[in-house]
Specification:
The chain is α+β, with helices and mostly antiparallel strands. It has one domain: Electron Transport, Fmn-binding Protein, Chain A (Pnp Oxidase, Chain A, Roll), CATH 2.30.110. It has 4 helices and 8 strands, in the order E-H-E-E-E-E-H-E-E-H-H-E. A hairpin with a 5-residue loop joins strand 6 and strand 7. Helix 3 packs antiparallel against helix 4.
C-alpha cells in the first residue's frame, strides 16, 4: 500500500545516486514543456543549470513556475513531485560553482571540475527553485 514520505524521506529520495528530474516549464502559449535535468538540493531549493537560449531557459526567464518529478521506476515504485517558482542568475562565479557541484553528483568527483568548466560559461543560467509544494509517495505497488 502506498505511503506518504516524510520530509527527510523525500529529500533523501531525490538526492539518491544519479536520479534525474523531469522538469516541466510553461511555454509562452501556456502549454507544458518537459525536459530531463541534473540537479541538487540546497536547503529548500532545487538547483540546476541550463542554457539561456534553450526552451526551458527561455520559459524560466519569462515564467518561473515549474514542476519537477523524480521517480524510481522499479517495483515497488516511488515518486516525488515538487512545485515551485524559479529565479535565474547569470553570475558566472555562481553558475560555475553550482555546475561543478551538480557534476560531482552525476559524473563523480574526478570529473566535476571538467564539467563545471564546460557548463559554467557565458550563456548558461543558474536556476534556483524555491519549493512551494511536495507530493511524495513510496511503495506504490506494495
Amino acid at each position: 500500500m502506498a505511503e506518504k514520505m516524510t520530509d527527510a524521506q523525500w529529500r533523501e529520495f531525490v538526492s539518491h545516486g544519479t536520479r534525474t528530474g523531469k522538469l516541466s516549464t510553461v511555454r509562452a502559449d501556456g502549454s507544458p514543456h518537459v525536459a530531463p535535468i541534473w540537479f541538487v538540493l540546497d536547503g529548500d531549493e532545487l538547483v540546476f543549470n541550463t542554457g539561456k537560449n534553450t526552451v526551458k531557459g527561455r520559459n524560466l526567464i519569462r515564467d518561473g513556475r515549474v514542476a519537477l518529478c523524480v521517480d524510481d521506476d522499479r517495483p515497488p515504485y516511488s515518486f516525488v513531485v515538487v512545485r515551485g517558482r524559479a529565479r535565474v542568475s547569470e553570475d558566472l562565479d555562481e553558475v560555475r560553482h553550482w555546475a561543478t557541484r551538480i557534476a560531482a553528483r552525476y559524473m563523480g568527483e574526478e570529473r566535476a571540475e571538467e564539467f563545471g568548466a564546460r557548463n559554467g560559461v557565458p550563456g548558461e543560467l543558474l536556476v534556483r527553485v524555491a519549493i512551494d509544494r511536495v507530493l511524495a509517495e513510496r511503495d506504490l505497488a506494495d
